[in-house]
Design a protein that fits this description.
84 residues
Length: 84
Amino acid sequence: MANEPVRRPTSRARSDYRLWRDLGYAGGAVVAGFTADLLGLHAAVWLVAALTFGSGVIAALRMTETLKLDTGLDDGKNIDEYSP
C-alpha cells in the first residue's frame, strides 16, 4: 500500500476493518459451500449459526463499552431526554 502513510489514521482503520469484513464474507461463503457439499445444507446452516453465536460470545467477552452515559434515572426524568 504505497499511499498508506499519507492517509489519516481513521481512514486506515476503516479500510482495515472493511478488508477483514469483506474477507469474512468471502471466506464464510466458501466454508459454507464446502460444508453444504460435504455434509448437506442443514449442517451448513448449523455451522453458520454456531460460528455467528461464537463470534457474538467472543465480542461480548472481549469488547468493552466506550460510551459512558449518565442517564440520571434517579432524578425522575424520562430516559428519552438523555438519548443522543
